[in-house]
């Protein structure tokens, strides 16, 4: 287990009755555990996932374990029109969002494009969440002391240097390798948090976390990218997982801390980066991750990209 200076565990989560949470990618891995523990403590949880079948199966498991229900929200982060529709579907319910956990992601997978023609890792990990968060902002701002938790990674340090984000080469298959594209998307998660804090930080507690190296389905991406070496990489990763990987229960703790702990309000914790377990640190690429101009550039780029893809220009 990594250091746990706050001694935080699932048992530390306060009662969450009448609070509304949305968790993207909640049907598996740390997202599933996040939904499970939030529901266990009485929150009204919306599991926002692409596959209805997998989502409903996960919800049934949560119901069996906790006796609590979780709602399903259809969300495909690789389809911006559907992302927009998902937010509209939620807004029709006229509920506040006390906390949005942008958990879903893909890692170091082979090069491909989303339905909107955006490189899949940047599109899924950043652009889809950018739009979903912006569209949900009216409901977020309705809540008392709302929170947004973005899930990044220590692998933001794989972002292409020196720029961090290659805006002119997002869809250029030859310009970056799969890990650089992943790092770029994870740096974008941090910079998006900076942008949210700049625009809404007086009203919303926005923080960003690295969950740790967790034994989840994310590992499929690097294996698929390995080609003929896939069996070897799969074998190596199994050994690494056995030696150092956190379980999903452990990996979910840091985002659960940011999403539920009373410390966030008591200590006015905003715009911070956390690593396991619930430890506040500076990101490894500190200069890039705190670059306000780069964060503004990303925000403007993302807004223009979304407008273009949705035909709003």
TrEMBL record:
SUPFAM superfamilies: NAD(P)-binding Rossmann-fold domains (SSF51735). The keyword Oxidoreductase applies. Pfam families: adh_short. Keywords: NADP, Oxidoreductase. GO terms for molecular function: oxidoreductase activity. InterPro entries: NAD(P)-bd_dom_sf, SDR_fam. Belongs to the short-chain dehydrogenases/reductases (SDR) family. This is NAD(P)-binding protein. It comes from Boothiomyces macroporosus.
